[in-house]
Amino acid sequence: MPSPTVDIVSFGYLHAAPPPAHLTIDLRAHFRDPHISPELRHMTAHDEPVRTTVLATPGIEQLLEATAAAVAALLSGPSADGATIAPGCAGGRHRAPVFAQHLANRLRGRGIRVALAHRDLDKPVVQR
């Protein structure tokens, strides 16, 4: 029997409601928003300056580790057939996809099967 898959779906709250998930993580109020820097605003999580900015936020490492532990707990249940994790930020182009990618890498490093999707990464910058 194959091991369960963890689906990670990053998203932006300003585009649509969060996707259905076992665990939704709201990154809006607690982590540095690259959107506020004009030089980063039109970049995405694909760009190194965005990743560096997000990952330099105090607490991000602890949240990644705590989320990985929560995923392991969800998968250890008697009827666990996978889990969906949905990290969200305002526009879905910066914080959430960076967090999602690093969570996916961490879980894969622990032998967990992961499917990663970024719902809003390629959408236009939200004007706010």
UniProtKB/TrEMBL annotation:
| GO MF annotation, one | ATP binding
Under InterPro entries, the record lists:
RapZ-like, RapZ_C
Domain RapZ C-terminal span(s) in chain numbering: 5-121
Name of the protein described by the UniProt record = ATPase
Q: What is the lineage of its organism?
A: Bacteria, Bacillati, Actinomycetota, Actinomycetes, Streptosporangiales
